[in-house]
Amino acid sequence: MQTFINLCKAIVGNEHVLTSEVEQKSYLEDWRQRVVGKALAIVRPSNTEQVAALVQLCQDHHVPIVPQGGNTGLVFGSIPDQSGTAIVLSLKRLQGIRKIDLDNHTMTVEAGCLLAQVQEAANEVGLLFPLSLASEGSCTIGGNLSTNAGGTAVLRYGNTRELCLGLEVVTAQGEIWNGLRELRKDNTGYDLRDLFIGAEGTLGIITACVLKLFPKPTQTQTVFTSLDSIEQAVALLETGKKQLGASLTGFELINQISLELVHHYFPQLQRIFSETSAWYVLLEVTNHGTVYDLDHQLEQVCATALEQDIILNASIAKTEKQAKNCWAIRESISAAQAKAGKNIKHDISLPISQIANFVKTTDAILQTAYPGCRMVTFGHLGDGNLHYNVSSPVHKDPEQFLEHQKIVNQIVHDQTMQHAGSISAEHGIGELKKAELRRYKSKVEMQLMRAIKNALDPQNLMNPGKILE
């Protein structure tokens, strides 16, 4: 394979073909340090033409390709297998902001741009790119598109798919499809854009995209509430939708265990309430009016919720510092879980009307099977996305509890499907969930997916072993 390596170097330069163990380490280990793969080389192109040349080279030499952005994924989608026969094609050097169209409210950027870079580029011209994730300082927009990432503002703005108008893609044959259209209406055949978004690099490699931009809200307000039940959280969501309309931007659910983990491991974050409750909801509201308008709307929502016994208490952030503290609490849950020990994670979505019954039923089943197990439940209730995580009982070894992961997953995912949900809301399938996908997708769906894969990537060199076998 030395000839192949030398040809890669001829395309991207010697310093951008990494073959030593030390150089490759950060590219081969997943974000949570659970899996380490092997690669023939890490190859780092700087533009779309180099990506296309590398894909053509891999086709000629039958070398598998694992596309990688920021390597912040949670389902091993950007990690190669143990064979060491694949290259990791890192897109981190594709960081150009190609165009900003102020009148059209669009931005054309390359796939290796960090999400935070895209947000800042929009901010600098007085506009907003609303996708917001805890990993925005390290994840790339190409990775966000490849997994159709969600985040905290889906309720108002939608997933990454809804924020993208066009793509540039290098196909499995090494051809460049220029679909960088800045159109909001384009009914000219099959929607190829939507085919590549969410495909996790198994059909082609996204190298650039056209993103929607929005007017920046003139006012933002944050509210933390405490509640007794998820039923009340759902009622609060309905009240907020009715009284706030499109101003309701974020609606995050947090259970007591999640909050206590954060305050235990991050004591510098200020507590919102002195008393504890079973559940909490963090709301964000934005508008283009005045501070008075927003405060008045929020006071009405909170007053209605208190009068109807929907919430126990509410704290409206009075300063930007207080608002940042509220969001820091929400965004620190995963880090607090990691400090507490390994746990069994689930990224599921459900109809909002089914969430309360799902949690009640599934909690009971798991407590019967594993008495004392701790449910760390939080997520984007506004769009039905729960991070339903199961931790070992106190005084039990988390590593030993992980031995039950397969059974726990089946319990959770069986209940998810019984409640008309999905086993993956925003993290994707990758390597981690492909067996689960076969279990819960219909035969017809799997056949259609395989037909698409076989048609676009007949040699099965694009991220092989991910999503499909």
Count of alpha/pi helices:
17
Taken as a percent bin, the fraction of beta residues is: 15-25%
Overall 3D geometry? globular
Q: Runs with pLDDT <50, length 5+? A: none
The largest beta-sheet arranges its strands as 15-12-14-13-17-18-16
Sketch the major β-sheet: 7 strands, antiparallel
Please outline the helices and strands.
Blueprint: H1 2-12, E1 17-18, H2 21-28, E2 41-43, H3 48-61, E3 65-68, E4 87-90, E5 97-101, E6 106-110, H4 115-124, E7 127-128, H5 141-147, H6 154-157, E8 164-171, E9 176-179, H7 192-196, E10 204-212, E11 214-215, E12 219-227, H8 230-244, E13 248-255, H9 256-265, E14 279-287, H10 291-307, E15 313-316, H11 320-331, H12 333-340, E16 347-349, H13 352-369, E17 374-380, E18 385-391, H14 398-401, H15 405-418, H16 434-440, H17 443-456
Domain FAD-binding PCMH-type: 35-216
Cofactor: FAD
Protein name: FAD-binding oxidoreductase
Can you tell me about this structure?
The chain is an alpha+beta fold and 469 residues long. Strands 15-12-14-13-17-18-16 form a 7-stranded antiparallel beta sheet, with helices on both faces. A 5-stranded antiparallel beta sheet has the order 5-6-10-8-9, with helices on both faces. The chain has a 4-stranded mixed beta sheet with strand order 1-2-4-3, sandwiched between helices. β17 and β18 form a beta hairpin. 47% of the residues are buried. The mean pLDDT is 96.
